[in-house]
Amino acid sequence: MCARRMAKESNTFGGEWSIKKLDCVESYLRSYLKVMMKKNWAELYYIDAFSGNGIQRFEGTYGEDQFSIAFEDELIGKFVEGSSMRALKVSDESERSGERGFKHFCFLELSGDKLSELRSRIEDSYPHMLARCKFIQGDVNDTLPELVRSIPWKEQRGVMFIDPWATQLSWSSVESLRGARCDIWMLFPLGAIIRMLPGDHLPPREFEGALTRIFGDDGWKDLYRHERGVQLSLFDEEGQQVSRQRGTKELIDYTTDRLRTVSQCVCGPAELRTSTNAPLFALYSMLPAGSQEAIRPFKAISNHLLKSIA
Questions:
Q1: Which of 95, 249, 270, 272 has the fewest Cβ atoms surrounding its Cβ within 10 A?
Q2: pTM of the full structure
Q3: Average pLDDT of each block of 10 consecutive residues along the chain (310 residues)?
Q4: Of the candidates 143, 151, 152, 81, the residue with the CA atom closest to the CA atom of residue 110
Q5: 282 three-class SS
Q6: Contact 225/103 with Cβ under 8 angstroms?
Q7: Does 107 fall in a domain?
Q8: Is residue 259 part of a domain?
């Protein structure tokens, strides 16, 4: 039985799938710093988009509409470190053991209150690392492309974690990652998108703009077919007799193909589901640009971690 309550803020939701996601990214950061141990010519960035306040608390339900998610009773009220605090912990432990850490930490968040809370937590736990941290308030769809453009990727490297809690991320932000020499872990809102794509009729008009913003064009319409099985290239009037294959496979295949248009290497995804097997998110790992020397360890580590949580 799942308890159902309304979460007050975006850092107040999650489930076992969320813990798996955070553990996976933390494991990747540890492996990444070991791989980069001898590459002293590059300063290392950690970028956290939708960073939140550094702590995740589990509530009963996030949302009251078609995007609501219920969570298990045993998790309610539990606190865990978020990705931003985990990245600082991993870097600090690596440096204390004589190995490399991240030189720069960039935390992107819409809420100024959450960034203030995150800053306070860092001051309390890692005061010696605060000078390396940059707190960037604003819509991630504005601040992320600007940040990516400002980093000289020929001389710098890094890891980025993009962790929206719903459909906030626009394709324009994904496209801005093209050419970045940065290993990217990104959460795609699989469950929310499925709810916007009915199986037996076209999406409501109010969802069409959102879907095009998320995917960058209206190619998502090709997921629908005439009942006779002829694939559509254009739609006529709403109410046309069309259907979409149930399940997640076609949507995941389409999303993966879209990501491959901006990234040299795409791994995954691992599907993150509720305890009742309802799809929630798809976790991807991507390398927009890199040499074969960089791609080999990236693929090996990413595929191993993604398979471990699938």
A1: 249
A2: 0.87
A3: 35 72 98 95 98 81 43 57 98 98 99 98 98 98 99 97 96 98 98 91 90 96 71 48 80 97 98 91 97 96 95
A4: 143
A5: strand
A6: no
A7: yes
A8: no
